[in-house]
């Protein structure tokens, strides 16, 4: 006969788990700072970020039609996004110049991340619509997540926690410095 695992019955009782507290993530979990609607003036952060200076907005590079910005809630160190300035929701809404520059910025971001951090691979993609996982579906953005061998370990898989090795301001400066010439 097998016994049932013992249930944790109270806060602070030993249960053999180590805990890494990340209280800054609560803003993301609660949806703070998310747009209240689909229009640019409904609080879209991707429309607000370009109005900030690069350091405050975590902007790595500005182009004519798009900009590269670090993700405030990264999956891995160096996780950035390429975002059109124009408030559009769907990839098919981009005009040819925006599509071209988004692609060029993606290539340059990969080059910069390889140079700055030794990234060995990338996850690149867009979540189109809320049902596809877009946190901010009203404003198109493409994710670039640098990857390294062994970067998926017990922390994100079992502990549901990401470990980032440096502050976002330091990562922004490092990637901006490594950005290839225009």
TrEMBL record:
<dbReference type="InterPro" id="IPR011146">
    <property type="entry name" value="HIT-like"/>
</dbReference>
<dbReference type="Pfam" id="PF01230">
    <property type="entry name" value="HIT"/>
</dbReference>
<protein>
    <submittedName>
        <fullName>HIT domain-containing protein</fullName>
    </submittedName>
</protein>
<keyword id="KW-0547">Nucleotide-binding</keyword>
<feature type="domain" description="HIT">
    <location>
        <begin position="45"/>
        <end position="154"/>
    </location>
</feature>
<feature type="short sequence motif" description="Histidine triad motif">
    <location>
        <begin position="139"/>
        <end position="143"/>
    </location>
</feature>
<dbReference type="InterPro" id="IPR039383">
    <property type="entry name" value="FHIT"/>
</dbReference>
<dbReference type="InterPro" id="IPR036265">
    <property type="entry name" value="HIT-like_sf"/>
</dbReference>
<dbReference type="InterPro" id="IPR052908">
    <property type="entry name" value="AP-4-A_phosphorylase"/>
</dbReference>
């Amino acid at each position: 006969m097998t016994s049932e695992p013992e249930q944790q019955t109270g806060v602070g009782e030993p249960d053999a788990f180590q805990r890494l507290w990340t209280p800054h993530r609560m803003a993301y979990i609660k949806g703070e700072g998310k747009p209240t609607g689909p229009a640019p003036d409904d609080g879209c952060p991707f429309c607000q970020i370009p109005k900030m200076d690069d350091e405050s907005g975590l902007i790595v590079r500005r182009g004519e039609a798009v900009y590269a910005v670090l993700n405030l809630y990264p999956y891995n160190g160096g996780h950035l996004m390429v975002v059109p300035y124009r408030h559009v929701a769907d990839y098919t809404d981009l005009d040819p110049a925006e599509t071209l520059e988004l692609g060029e910025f993606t290539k340059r971001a990969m080059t910069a991340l390889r140079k700055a951090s030794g990234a060995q691979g990338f996850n690149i993609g867009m979540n189109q619509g809320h049902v596809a996982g877009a946190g901010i579906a009203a404003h198109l953005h493409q994710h670039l997540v640098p990857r390294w061998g062994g970067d998926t370990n017990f922390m994100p898989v079992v502990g549901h926690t990401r470990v980032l090795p440096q502050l976002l301001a330091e990562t922004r400066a490092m990637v901006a410095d490594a950005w290839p010439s225009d």
